[in-house]
Specification:
The chain is an alpha+beta fold and 268 residues long. The chain has a domain of 119 residues: OB fold (Dihydrolipoamide Acetyltransferase, E2P) (Beta Barrel), CATH 2.40.50. It is 29% helix and 13% strand. Strands 2-3-4-9-8 form a five-stranded mixed β-sheet. A three-stranded antiparallel β-sheet has the order 1-7-10, with no helix packed on it.
């Protein structure tokens, strides 16, 4: 019972203390508001203040005191705003009515670099139509400096004829093996057929054909000496049918011999 009385008395004392604090704060606020209301606030009459029309209207004493006041306090009272005449901001009349003069442009700092024209054409996955005649996509390439040979050409040897044109085409296909053909810009173009000097890697296919007797060089070209060597060795068109198993195997001057890439299947 005594414990409950102590608890009740402590809570009542806390409430009384809280009420006293609130009453004291309210009295302080009322006294502050009454003091502010009794303070007189004087404001000057705006109509009584006249702005000077020009800097000359500012008294000499005030203008002389401005630098000293700025040096002492670091602040300068705001001066009355003077009037601004629009004529003071207009462009000068000199040069307005004069005609414009066009001057020459300055020279370029550097010469423009011209894009070099393409000097070679690459034909992907070429297919031999005949010895010296190649097809790539929609373009047919005739190798330069050799006469075009037909796949229907026949040759005579050992008392019988043999399809030397087909054999030459097969040998040329084995040489190409679908490798990319890099040619100079063609000399002419007629219905998708062009004549150009070409290379496969570092090899010249026209020289390969003439050296092995599978092509005839044009008169006056540097390939005539190779054709004479092939004729003396009885290679290609100048020899017998290489398919005759009863004769010695034909030795072909193939600089690509020994390469690991798979050869194209012969079409015989």
């Amino acid at each position: 019972m005594r414990q409950q009385l102590f608890t009740f008395a402590g809570g009542l004392a806390a409430l009384l203390l809280y009420a006293g604090i609130l009453w004291g704060g309210a009295a302080a606020i009322r006294s502050h508001e009454s003091a502010v209301a009794d303070f007189p606030l004087e404001t000057p009459d705006v109509a009584a203040v006249e702005a000077p029309d020009s800097p000359e209207d500012v008294p000499v004493e005030i203008s002389a005191a401005l630098p000293e006041q700025k040096a002492r306090t670091g602040k300068v009272d705001r001066l009355p705003v003077r009037k601004i005449e629009p004529q003071l901001f207009a462009l000068p009349e000199d040069g307005i009515a004069q005609p414009l003069e066009r001057i020459a442009p300055r020279p370029q700092l550097s010469e423009p670099k011209e894009k070099p024209a393409a000097t070679t054409v690459v034909f992907q996955r070429p297919v031999a139509l005949a010895a010296g005649l190649i097809r790539s996509g929609d373009t047919t390439v005739q190798l330069k400096d050799i006469e075009p040979e037909s796949a229907e050409k026949t040759c005579a040897g050992n008392g019988r004829s043999w399809p030397c044109g087909i054999v030459a085409r097969t040998a040329f296909r084995n040489f190409l093996r679908a490798r990319a053909l890099v040619c100079d810009q063609p000399d002419n173009s007629s219905e998708g057929t062009v004549t150009a000097a070409c290379k496969i890697g570092t090899e010249n296919p026209a020289e390969w054909l003439v050296s092995n007797g599978w092509a005839t060089p044009l008169p006056g070209t540097a390939l005539e000496a190779r054709a004479e060597a092939a004729r003396s060795a009885k290679r290609g068109f100048y020899g017998d049918d290489p398919r005759d198993l009863g004769r010695a195997p034909l030795v072909i001057d193939d600089p690509t011999a020994g390469m690991t890439e798979d050869d194209a299947a012969p079409d015989l």
